[in-house]
Amino acid sequence: MSMTELVASIAILLVSIFIFVTKSSKSRASSIPNPKAPKSYPLIGSSVAIFANRNRRIQWISDLIQSSPSATVVIHRFFLDDSHVLTGNPANVQHMLKTQFQNYEKGSKSRRALFDFLGNGIFNINGDSWKFQRQLSSHEFSTKSLRKFVETVVDTELSQRLIPTLSAAAASNAVLDLQDILQRFAFDNICQISFGYDPAYLLPGLPEAEFAKTFDEATEISSGRFNSVFPYLWKIKKFLNIGSEKRLKEASSRLRQFAKNIIKEKKQELSKNSSLESVDLLSRFLSSGHSDEDFVTDIVISFILAGRDTTSAALTWYFWLLSQNQEVEKEVLREIKEQSESPVYEEVKDMVYTHASLCESMRLYPPVPDRQQGCKTRRCFA
Question: Where are the domains of the chain?
Answer without folding.
Answer: 3-104, 136-374
